[in-house]
């Protein structure tokens, strides 16, 4: 896995060129306007990027999750808003439907999701519940005359309010388990369903060209057959999805970290100070060397996690390690790249300014750094002491 085969390398190279030639020249303007890049999304859909891990018979490319990770890394070398749009659409939108949906649900949604014609979203987080999503959940769904009646609010939901959003998978309390804990199930709510309100876009520090919304449900009714997977298994299903998603976010983080190295190498050859390009000075050389070390180490971590995942082996610990190491690398590299660029690094017109704004959320989303450490400690057996 550490040496890419010909197919993986061809995919990586294709997306690298697309990111450089198509995304890079225009994404800064989208970012400044906080505008969703529909044209770029259409082109990525035509390339099959949204359908990489989906079987061909269901409209996908018949690839695997590692191929998706390579795509995310190359996109994030240029821009994380575009990368997270793909990551969330596939990991949180299409994959739960592919893994847990009925034949009818997959037939209705998967081909258009795989083509990038529609985006799926997942509604788990709530205003009062982040890391403790299950304990903080207040959204409910009750069965009434063959329909689920949903009430509640979701927060920080990616891809939930675009013009091409097809549905949101909503995690909701649907009853009480025998042990007294809430029974959590996932229900598909198509966009435009009465009682389903999408709030205006958040004003965010970063990922400004991606779509993130708060959602509310007021007696929102959908058919009983919109249940995704098994009743009462909604949270367990999401935890399985989240382990895969952490590998994907690690790949995205590595891309951002690599982008910081790329931009810094270019800049230190052009920028002069005290009679020399600033790359002449050992202080700058050491900064970039450390950035490269962090990036390389993080890439190996997510490659290893992906290798175990594709082999069908347990990979929860490796996914947490990869996500933690890679998000730290992204944040550290973004800070150092901004320092190397000096005043220009504080300007949004330069990619490192966007990288700096985008990096912090990688230590928060899909499980905070603290949660990753908890998971690693638990996998080492320390939680039972």
Secondary structure layout:
Elements: H1 6-33, H2 38-47, H3 65-76, H4 80-100, H5 103-114, E1 119-123, E2 140-144, E3 147-158, E4 165-176, E5 182-190, E6 196-198, E7 212-223, E8 227-228, H6 234-270, E9 272-273, E10 276-277, H7 282-310, H8 316-341, H9 351-359, H10 369-379
Parallel strand pairs: 1-4
Antiparallel strand pairs: 2-3, 3-7, 4-5, 5-8, 6-7, 9-10
Helix pairs in contact: 1-3, 3-4, 3-6, 4-5, 4-6, 6-7, 6-8, 6-9, 7-8, 8-9, 8-10
Description:
It is a single chain. With 385 residues, the protein is of the alpha+beta class. The chain has three domains: 6-117, Butyryl-Coa Dehydrogenase, subunit A, domain 1 (Orthogonal Bundle), CATH 1.10.540.10; 121-232, Beta Barrel (Butyryl-CoA Dehydrogenase, subunit A, domain 2), CATH 2.40.110.10; 236-384, Butyryl-CoA Dehydrogenase, subunit A, domain 3, CATH 1.20.140.10. It has ten helices and ten strands. A four-stranded mixed β-sheet has the order 1-4-5-8, with helices on one face. α6 runs parallel beside α8 (316-341). The longest helix has 37 residues, at 234-270. It is globular. It starts with 5 loop residues before the first helix and ends in a 6-residue tail after the last helix. The relative contact order is 0.11. Its cofactor is FAD. This is Acyl-CoA dehydrogenase. GO terms for molecular function: acyl-CoA dehydrogenase activity; flavin adenine dinucleotide binding. Belongs to the acyl-CoA dehydrogenase family. Pfam families: Acyl-CoA_dh_1, Acyl-CoA_dh_M, Acyl-CoA_dh_N.
